[in-house]
């Protein structure tokens, strides 16, 4: 009788085990994929941690899971706390929907630099605070359930069941997104409901002009979790990247509120508890040890020349040591210096200008996101692609020949580097001729 009872329970135990563990497939940017077994209550952050460990990545808290819906031409970054299986359960069976694992440096940047994300002309404060709020407290008003900044401005909206787009004045409040049917009037009788976010998410539209005939490429949309058809999307389009980023960020904050702040501070709290000490670049000081007493170098131009000279002397010593051990001679070391950058994660080889734009935009349009690549117009030169003020700028790195020695320079030879690694190291600590320091390199991994 006991044996009968146990065998009767076995199917139920198997079902429970199947429910607890699920197999998901995750893609990297080069479209390699890996299937992993995860618990049914796994979060996006859990999956990222798993792939960080499996691929021996440096965990800088920027790794993110993206939901990519190819049939709709849209994608969004999953919030760290979201349950992955809930997201997957909303996918239609016959569609090409994927999870991507990649960097997203802009994920929580609005907590650090809110004014970069919320320009003055798009923000006003709701009546509950009588219009009075310090800009430093802008994010706090989003997180506080009793207050909310009002986001407003013009957007293009695709008209339902039509191919045409109409430009209207939109207003985002805690109760939802509205548009005015009378100019810029915010009177209740002139505001028409457009969408709310209780059971919807905001996505970036990847090819707004091509797929939907949008007036610009800065498309985004509000998609219900139950919707799987393109005709059910509430499509919007901004005139520039800053405007689109402002709307999307505000919608994320309205939907998830304090949970986003918890996601942001959680890894930093873990770091404080860790015995490992992190050194900020701001704590690095230039010192002069040449005299009897050491001194702090405060003159910026002197700091620049000392850093370059120190780097050059270090490289010369390295080359000398190699030559002394029967390894590359001076002539051969210049060849070595040319190729040494190839293995660096920030170097992307024969990447086109358009592809570099796409890669940087995917990994976060914040100041200092960068990559290096071969120049397509001049095979002997390289290009530094750098994001600044939500725009991507390109700087040519030119070879400089000085009495048979090859150097690289961004400023017509005034500041010279023996190889690209030294150049990147320098501009990570010094702005120099660039609009900002190099902060985050675009990384591609193979799963």
Automatic annotation (TrEMBL):
Any Gene Ontology CC annotation: cytoplasm
Family annotation (CDD domains): PH_APBB1IP (cd01259)
PROSITE patterns attached to this UniProt entry: PH_DOMAIN, RA, SH2
Record-annotated SH2 domain positions: 346-442
Location relative to the cell: Cytoplasm
InterPro entries registered for this protein in UniProt: BPS-dom (IPR015042), GRB/APBB1IP (IPR039664), PH-like_dom_sf (IPR011993), PH_APBB1IP (IPR039665), PH_domain (IPR001849), RA_dom (IPR000159), SH2 (IPR000980), SH2_dom_sf (IPR036860)
Pfam families: BPS, PH, RA_2, SH2
Family recorded in the similarity comment: Belongs to the GRB7/10/14 family.
This protein's name: Growth factor receptor bound protein 14
């Amino acid at each position: 009788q006991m044996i009968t009872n146990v065998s009767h329970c076995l199917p139920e135990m198997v079902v429970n085990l199947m429910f607890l563990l699920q197999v998901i497939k995750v893609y990297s940017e080069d479209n390699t994929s890996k299937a992993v077994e995860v618990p049914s209550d796994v979060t996006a952050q859990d999956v990222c941690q798993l792939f960080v460990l499996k691929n021996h990545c440096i965990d800088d808290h920027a790794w993110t899971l993206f939901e990519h819906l190819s049939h709709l031409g849209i994608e969004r970054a999953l919030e760290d706390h979201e349950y992955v299986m809930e997201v997957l359960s909303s996918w239609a069976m016959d569609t090409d929907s994927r999870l991507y694992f990649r960097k997203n440096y802009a994920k929580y940047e609005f907590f650090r630099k809110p004014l970069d994300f919320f320009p003055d002309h798009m923000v006003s404060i709701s009546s509950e605070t009588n219009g009075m709020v310090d800009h430093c407290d802008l994010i706090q008003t989003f997180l506080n359930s009793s207050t909310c900044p009002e986001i407003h401005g013009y957007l293009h909206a695709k008209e339902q069941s039509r191919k045409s787009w109409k430009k209207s004045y939109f207003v985002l409040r805690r109760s939802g997104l509205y548009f005015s049917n009378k100019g810029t009037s915010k009177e209740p009788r002139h505001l028409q409901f457009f969408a709310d976010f209780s059971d919807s998410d905001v996505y970036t539209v990847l090819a707004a002009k091509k797929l939907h005939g949008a007036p610009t490429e800065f498309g985004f949309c509000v998609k219900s979790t139950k919707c799987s058809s393109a005709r059910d999307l509430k499509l919007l389009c901004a005139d520039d990247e800053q405007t689109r980023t402002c709307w999307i960020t505000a919608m994320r904050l309205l939907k998830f509120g304090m949970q986003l702040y918890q996601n942001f501070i959680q890894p930093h709290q873990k770091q404080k508890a860790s015995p490992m000490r992190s050194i900020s670049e701001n704590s690095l000081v230039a010192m002069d040890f040449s005299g009897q007493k050491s001194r702090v170098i405060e003159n910026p131009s002197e700091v620049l020349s000392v850093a370059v000279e120190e780097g050059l002397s270090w490289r010369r010593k390295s080359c000398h040591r190699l030559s002394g051990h029967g390894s590359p001679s001076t002539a051969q070391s210049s060849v070595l210096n040319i190729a040494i950058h190839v293995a660096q994660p920030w170097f992307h080889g024969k990447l086109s200008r358009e592809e570099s734009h796409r890669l940087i935009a995917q990994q976060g349009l914040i100041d200092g996101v960068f990559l290096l690549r071969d120049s397509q117009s001049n095979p002997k030169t390289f290009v530094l692609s750098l994001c600044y003020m939500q725009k991507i700028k390109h700087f040519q790195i030119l070879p400089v020949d000085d009495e048979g020695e090859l150097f690289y320079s961004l400023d017509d030879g005034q500041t010279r580097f023996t190889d690209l690694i030294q150049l990147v190291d320098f501009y990570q600590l010094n702005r120099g001729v660039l609009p900002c320091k190099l902060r985050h390199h675009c990384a591609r991994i193979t799963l």
